[in-house]
Amino acid sequence: MMPPPQLLGLPYDASSSFLRGAAEAPPVIRAALRSSAGNSWSEALIDLWAPGGLIDGGDLVLSEGTDVRAELESGVVRVLTDGFRPVLLGGDHSVTYPAMRAINMRYPRPTIVHIDAHSDLYDEFEGDRYSHACPFARILEETLAAHLIQIGIRAMNGHQRQQADRYGVDVIDMRRWTEGARPVVDGPIYLSIDLDGIDPAHAPGVSHKEPGGLTVREVLTIVQSLGGTIVGADIVELNPRQDIAGVTAIVAAKLVKEVASRMLQDR
Questions:
Q1: pLDDT tens for each residue of 211-239
Q2: Chain centroid, CA 152 distance in Å
Q3: How far, in Å, CA of 198 to CA of 212, rounded?
Q4: Whose CA, among 52, 55, 62, 213, lies 20 to 30 Å from 8?
Q5: How far apart are CA 64 and CA 86, in angstroms?
Q6: 147 Cβ neighbours under 8 A, 6+ residues apart
């Protein structure tokens, strides 16, 4: 039987290229998740806080002046060795690279399903190979994934298209999505959801707003209908400083509920 899911906050945004603030997201998402405005049940009628359900592992405490990526990786390794599957709350998208290094110790080379406005495939960005614009280049360089499927992309440039071709990435950009393309996947899956993959009309609290994106319902449908087994997930790039009335935090909390519910169903 697959392990249950555990939340872990990764309060890190020093690899953000435009605005800071994503490091403040984990407690904000957790507050929305626990809010009395809603309840603890998923759409599949699973009570997430019931015994054997979602466990909250709190937020990782990061040290100053150390190898932060190593600390992030160790934090995810601890979730796995404690007998759980991680549901990670970013933080900026750079956290996915150390998370995938950890995941590979238990679940080698899963398929990544990546929802985002941006492909995050830069070889380097503004001189930083570990920018939040680069995690999937690092992941694919190290062959940490069997395959990468990207959904919702609508801000790709020539260099990133070359990178996608180089690594055999299946890019379901918004034009392909509207034409009916959908992900086909089986086996172990790592799910990475950047909240700016959702149209900013529905999720304004992000640093890089890109119009023309997915609806919240479309992302929920992806989560609920994916084939395979989710071995880990992250929800990243909420910037509370940019949010309006906590709307995006509520969206993030909804996604946490449905991702965790799906993981519990996978058991």
A1: 999 999 999 999 999 999 999 999 999 99
A2: 13
A3: 8
A4: 213
A5: 24
A6: 111, 112, 168, 170, 185
